[in-house]
UniProtKB/TrEMBL annotation:
Source organism of this protein record: Clostridium gallinarum
Gene3D superfamilies in the cross-refs: Winged helix-like DNA-binding domain superfamily/Winged helix DNA-binding domain (1.10.10.10)
Domain Initiator Rep protein WH1: 10-177
Matching Pfam families: Rep3_C (PF21205), Rep3_N (PF01051)
Protein name, as recorded: Replication initiation protein
Alphabetical list of InterPro entries matching this protein: Initiator_Rep_WH1 (IPR000525), WH-like_DNA-bd_sf (IPR036388), WH_DNA-bd_sf (IPR036390)
Annotated family: Belongs to the initiator RepB protein family.
Coiled-coil ranges from the UniProt annotation: none
């Protein structure tokens, strides 16, 4: 199995830009939005050890793409930035600029099959839509494929965790273990695998030196953050030499994967009165029963109900019909508006009668 190990700088501060809480929140939203808006390319759910043929095709297709685009709306910004001042165009520009200056490098393969190191920012560039204020964000495709490959999903503190670890070997070791910790608690590597994945080279050639200066220091640094608890469970010898190491890993950082294959609710909607659309036949029958004492064929009644329907959808734009789902309903609102419209019509008719007399 081949591994691509993340090699990050010890600090991502670039001039006056630095990564803080706002940048991390935006990065979290980016991880989510990239998956949501590019589901034809991205395996967003927790991946098993063996990919299906469909997943493999997705992965191959994604390797051919240079960039991915996702959209972040004004409602998204209100969700992640509670303070109005953090949502101004100038403030958002600074947050995006900070992510644009956040550089991650990793080993990969070019489209002509050449081994290479890719150096990429978290955000390539972005557009601000003048009419809506929404942002279209362009990101490097291979970088986000790489982050999803590592099993980071869109974990709550992915960016802060990567950069919280100061030692380069601690950073690499954390991500190696993170890519396996979702599927197993005890993780075994050969010493040579660890040396290759951590990119030790010719340093610390003896096992004692490797264990003391690289492994234990990295384990202590990762454990000190509280994001993961690592222990060396067993050292397996081959002759007199330690050949393999089994680590016990408790990953305290939750994995939150976007579910793309959830069962869709079957559309049972029907038309009730001309263009008035309701959730299902049962709700249509309830409306017919509720308004059984008025003449639904009357043009005046139809006009009142149509007007009430239009007002309901304008006031509650979560729906495009009359719905009565448990916990989410505009059914009562529709009936309330109908009552008001009927009362208004009765008062108008009464006034006309008085004027005529």
């Amino acid at each position: 199995m081949g591994y691509e190990v993340l090699a990050t700088p010890n600090s991502i501060a670039r001039g006056r830009y630095s990564i803080g809480e706002n940048e991390n929140k935006l990065f979290l939203k980016l991880m989510y939005s990239v998956q949501r808006d590019n589901n034809e390319y991205i395996i967003a759910e927790n991946k098993k050890e063996e990919l299906s043929e469909e997943d493999i095709l997705k992965w191959k297709e994604l390797c051919k793409i240079e960039t991915l685009t996702c959209k972040i709306t004004q409602d998204d910004f209100k969700e992640i930035f509670k303070r109005r001042n953090d949502r101004t165009e100038e403030s958002l520009k600074e947050v995006f600029t900070a992510l644009s200056n956040c550089i991650i490098s990793f080993d990969t393969v070019t489209r002509d099959e050449m081994r290479a190191k890719m150096i990429a920012p978290l955000v390539s560039h972005f557009y601000v839509e003048k009419e809506t204020g929404n942002y279209q964000v362009v990101v490097p495709a291979k970088l986000y494929k790489y982050l999803f490959d590592l099993g980071l999903g869109h974990t709550q503190n992915a960016l802060q965790i990567i950069y919280k670890l100061k030692g380069i070997y601690a950073q690499r070791f954390y991500i190696i273990l993170r890519s396996w910790s979702g599927t197993k608690r005890d993780i075994m590597f050969s010493v040579q695998e660890l040396r290759d994945m951590l990119q030790i080279g010719d340093k610390n050639k003896t096992f004692n030196s490797f264990e003391t200066n690289i492994l234990k220091r990295s384990i202590n640094e990762i454990n000190s953050t509280g994001i993961m608890k690592i222990e060396i469970k067993e050292k397996i010898k081959k002759g007199r030499t330690v050949d393999k190491i089994i680590f016990t890993v408790v990953d305290n950082e939750p994995r939150n994967y976007l579910k793309l294959n959830e069962k869709k609710v079957k559309d049972e909607s029907v038309l009730w009165l001309d263009y008035i659309k309701v959730q299902n036949v049962a709700l249509k029958e309830r409306l017919e029963l509720k308004y059984s004492d008025i003449d639904l064929s009357s043009p005046i009644v139809k006009s009142i109900l149509h007007r009430a329907y239009d007002k309901t959808l304008n006031k509650d734009n979560r729906f495009n019909m009359i719905q009565d789902i448990k916990g989410k309903s505009n059914f009562a609102l529709f009936n309330h508006i109908v009552s008001g419209e009927l009362l208004t019509h009765e008062l108008k008719m009464s006034q006309e009668i008085i004027i005529e007399q």
